[in-house]
Amino acid sequence: MLQKNLLQVPDGPCDSIMDQMIAVERIEKTDARDLQTRQFVSTDEFGSPEALACWLSNRLPEGISQWGVTPGTKQVTNLWLELKEGEIVLEDTYPPRRTVHVASVKIRNKTGHMLVEAHQEMADGSIRLRNRPLSEKMRPGENVEEACFRGILEELGEHLGARNRVRILLGSYKRELEERESLSYPGLLTCYVIHSVDAVIEDLPETGFYTVENELMSHSATTVESGSEIFSSRAAVGVRKHFWRWVPQSS
User: Fold this and answer.
1) How many CB atoms lie within 10 A of CB 154?
2) pTM (2 decimals)?
3) What are the extents of the domains in the chain?
């Protein structure tokens, strides 16, 4: 079941996106206190992606047999990397609950249309439908502005996503909570804390286009051996291409 909660920061003079986030400081502190009362797991406790896979299989009613098999889904190794790098937290519950902070950039053009990622081509050749604005999982210690600039650079590339071409619109920050089953990891309940801003980027193509990322290439040499199987980050499914299109701005 999809649950949403939207908080919009009031308009007003400010120096940066971070200034706007002061308005939600009380909510963030409440979130932090809530986290202290819950139990979470870490990769140190499991020791390997194989152990994480066993833990998930015992706690998810449908198991994880379709992860990385059904088109558009990811491998358990992807989840392992997210957990190891601090991009998510995984709650020690039955069933488990994943929480991820996402920076979402609503890029507008001169006609008011918004850039959305129509779909992704994964490294294994599968297609993953998206139909959403440019989005990036936030890293530990990273603020919204930093995550937005990093996401733009990684997904649009060094030329189209160059920082000097990007202007984030002040007063556009919103924070939205969305809880639903993950499309990447079927059966895994996920809470998405979405931090969105509007932005303008100079000289983007006026029609549909694609960009190349080759996600997870930096992990290609990492392997973890456990028992009779070797779990390698080569098995993690990364994004190869992003396909973009302009859509009319929603009201």
Assistant:
1) 17
2) 0.81
3) 3-247
